[in-house]
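Structure ticket #2291
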Amino acid sequence: MLESTLVNQNLPKQFQTNTKSLLGGGELNLAMYEDKRHKADYISLQLAFMNDLTNLSLRLKDPRTGKDKDNFLFKELRRINDWIDANVRSEAHKVKLPDTRSKFKGGIVFPMKIGDDRDPFVILGNIPELSAVFETKARAPYKIVFEVCRLSELIEETLAEEKANLALEAGAAATDLAEAQANEERTVKNPDDDSEADRDVWDDDEGAEDEKAVIDTPAV
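Resolution: structure written out below.
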C-alpha cells in the first residue's frame, strides 16, 4: 500500500531519483512512486475479478437463481464485462508508466500457465454467447470463453500512442511559435501604422469637417 512505503513521513531512498540524473537534483521520482500505488490497486482488481468468477459458480447452484441458469450466466458475464470497463479501463488515464497503464487499458492480467509471468495473457473480456452451465448434484461448474492478448502487444500499442501524441504536441507547439513570431514581426515592422480601414475612416472624417466648414462660412 501507498502508506506502508512512508518512513517518518519521508519517501524511502528507492523512490528518490539519483541527484546526478536531474538538473537541480533532489527531486522525487513521483512517477515511480505513484506507479507502486497503481500496481497495488491493480492487484486488488485482479483479486476482485477472480472472486467474482468463483462466487458466480456458487450462485448458479443456489436454488434462488431459478431454472434458467444459462440465461442467468449470460447476464452475469455481461455484467463482468461492464465491470472491467468501469473499474479497470477507466483508471488507465491516471497511470503514467506505459507498462502499468497497458494493464489497465487491456483488462485483467491472468497468467494461464506456469512461467507465463514474463509476457502474460491479458483478459480483454469474455464472450457470454459461448458460455454454458454444467450442473451436477454437488456443484455448478460453467464454461467461460475469454478474449485475450499478450501484455507485450498492449505495451507496444501504448508506446506507439505516446509517440504519436508527442508528435502532435510538437507540431502544435511549432505552429503556435511560428504564428507568434509572424505576429511579432508585423508589430515591429509597423508599430504606429493604422490599418487601411482606420485610415479610410480618418480621411472620411476630415473630408466631412472641410465640407462643413465651407457650408458654415458666410459669403463675403
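Closing remark: Residues 3-161 form one domain.
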